[in-house]
Amino acid sequence: xxxxxxxxxxxxxxxxxxLGKAMALRFGQEKANVVINYHSKEENVKEIIQExxxxxxxxxxxxxxxxxxxxxxxxxxxxxxxxxxVDIWVNNAGIENEVPSEKMTLENWKEVIDVxxxxxxxxxxxxxxxxxxxxxxxxxxNISSVHEQIPWPHFVHYATSKGGVKLMTETLALEFAPKGxxxxxxxxxxxxxxxxxxxxxxxxxxxxxxxxxxxxxxGKPEEIASVAAWLASNESSYVTGTTIFADGGMTKYxxxxxxxx
Length: 261
Ligand code: NAD
Prior knowledge:
By secondary structure, the chain is α/β, with parallel strands linked by helices. It has 8 helices and 7 strands, in the order βαβαβαβαβαβαααβ. α4 links the parallel β4 (88-91) and β5.
């Protein structure tokens, strides 16, 4: 637990499911004020707010599409009106779908880029402006992916978006370090969330993914939430412009294990 997070306000995008939900619950346990942005699965939100309240935190929700400027502005407005501050912003919302590149339509491409890349930019820009205006040495945490580094055929829009988030994070971190705003990425490997539900329900596909993970198991959302809490805490005070890979070793060339190569 990080006592300095108590009473801090955190906005998390795409927080009605998966990693966003786990981060909302974790920041709730830290007794932060949690602003849950959601786009779907509204039915989950009430439960998340209740659980946060039971743990002594406070939470509100705000529906919105991260790729729309007006929705991002409404999100920060609602956080400010409810809690009077925005100290931490987590750009978590993201989508993926499999399309061989030669068949990828402009619509397929834009859909993923708009949410994963443009949505992250809009969130960063809004958070930075708020933090500068209010002289807050805030923290921004972007959720990229191991695919900011590992190429992914059939998912060129996704890999491009996450590679873009990597350089966006590095560029913004450099630009705003003198103002005390720290900006980092978390790159999850394969984590048990709805984004992977169909793939992991098939035993063969699940086993194929598991073979790519040296640590031997598919990650849990809480294992990403704990990295987010650390990045938001004072314990990571000297960390900015970097990606923390939370991937069970997936990016460490597992095919070389056992002396291969
Ligand atoms: P998820 O599908 O449970 O979560 C994604 C969330 O984003 C959903 O709640 C969805 O409603 C929301 N969302 C989608 N479009 C949105 C929009 N336009 N505006 C606002 N919210 C929107 O999956 P997840 O695994 O929790 O994914 C969270 C993030 O983690 C994503 O950015 C994803 O790319 C990244 N990631 C996940 C994994 C993994 O294995 N689960 C691995 C690497 C990266």
